[in-house]
Amino acid sequence: MPYFVFSITQPNPLVKNLELKASFEGYADARHAVRSLRINAQPEDRASYKMVFAANQLEAEERLLEQREKPVLMEWEK
């Protein structure tokens, strides 16, 4: 399964815009691509960059768009 590298912009809390930057067969290549995108990003650029391991591009986009519940913090963790 390949690794997909996405640029994510979020104009408001309800909408995420995904842009596929590249896909790689190896983890090391994908990690290097994400790190270089993050390092070379301009300060005014509001995009975040993520790497996803998935069977295809559709599954990768679904994983990035799914809403996750926030973990419950216990009293001693605050």
Structure write-up:
- The protein is of the alpha+beta class.
- The chain has one domain.
- 29% of the residues lie in helices and 33% in strands.
- It has two helices and three strands, in the order ββαβα.
- The chain has helices spanning 27-40, 57-65; strands at 3-12, 15-24, 48-53.
- Strands 2-1-3 form a three-stranded antiparallel β-sheet.
- It is globular.
- The termini are far apart.
- 9% of the residues are buried.
- The mean pLDDT is 91.
Rounded average pLDDT: 91
Tally of strands:
3
Characterize the largest beta sheet: strand count, sense, and whether it forms a barrel. Answer: 3 strands, antiparallel
Query: Which sequence of strands runs across the widest sheet?
Result: 2-1-3
Alpha carbon gyration radius: 15 Å
N-to-C SSE series? EEHEH
Helix content: 25-40%
Instruction: Flag low-confidence runs.
Output: none
Estimate the global geometry from the Cα principal axes: globular
The tally of domains stands at 1
Distance between the termini: 39 Å
Number of helices: 2
* Class of secondary structure makeup: alpha+beta
Assess the beta-strand content as a share of residues: 25-35%
Briefly say what this structure is.
Helices cover 29% and strands 33% of the residues. With 78 residues, it is an alpha+beta fold.
